[in-house]
Design brief:
Helices cover 0% and strands 47% of the residues. The strands form five sheets. The protein has a three-stranded antiparallel beta sheet, with no helix packed on it. The chain has a three-stranded antiparallel beta sheet with strand order 4-5-7, with no helix packed on it. The protein is mainly beta and 174 residues long.
Length: 174
């Protein structure tokens, strides 16, 4: 066996980069041969990230879902390994997360690795303003309350008092 990269005497060459390799030699009947073969790289390992920030201040409702692609996946699921640098976090989908930074290393079967950092941000605390008008007389339902969301939270906002949903409430008794 005579390989185009200089290796001789072996039917196998290992630890070689991608490219075209030619082997020549003589078979058992004394006939010469020349064979070309191509070693290709797997597709580059990449990841698409779907991250959802926590919806409320102080409530761990964030989510992260990873969609790796390329590389050389494991032959049985899961196709990739995920190292979150944590004994609590595992897998490609995390839920009920508080705000913070989440580093992760994703590896394929060949131990090729891609590292990424996902940061979840919670909204500011919800701030409200109330404008009230007192009822004009006792037992008259003409008082009002107007609620205005001034900062924080995650829109759209929903206001409920008793069975009514709105940001303006009228016909209220004192």
């Amino acid at each position: 066996y005579n390989w185009s990269n200089g290796v001789t005497g072996s039917s196998t060459i290992i630890n070689i980069p991608s490219g075209t390799y030619t082997v020549s030699g003589v078979d058992q009947y004394g006939c010469p041969y020349i064979i070309d073969t191509v070693v290709v790289d797997p597709p580059q390992l990449t990841v698409t990230i779907d991250a959802v920030n926590p919806l409320c201040n102080g409530v761990p409702s964030g989510e992260i879902t990873l969609f790796p692609d390329g590389g050389t996946p494991y032959p049985i699921p899961p196709a990739y390994s995920f190292d979150w640098n944590s004994v609590i976090l595992s897998g490609s989908q995390l839920t009920e997360l508080p705000p913070g930074s989440y580093p992760v290393s994703i590896r394929d079967v060949n131990n090729c690795q891609i590292d990424t950092l996902i940061t979840l941000i919670e909204p500011d605390s919800l701030k409200l303003e109330f404008e009230t008008t007192m009822a004009e007389c006792r037992d008259e339902a003409n008082g009002t309350i107007t609620i205005t969301f001034t900062d924080g939270g995650t829109a759209p906002y929903r206001t409920t008092i008793a069975e009514y949903e709105d940001s303006f409430f009228d016909f209220l008794l004192p």
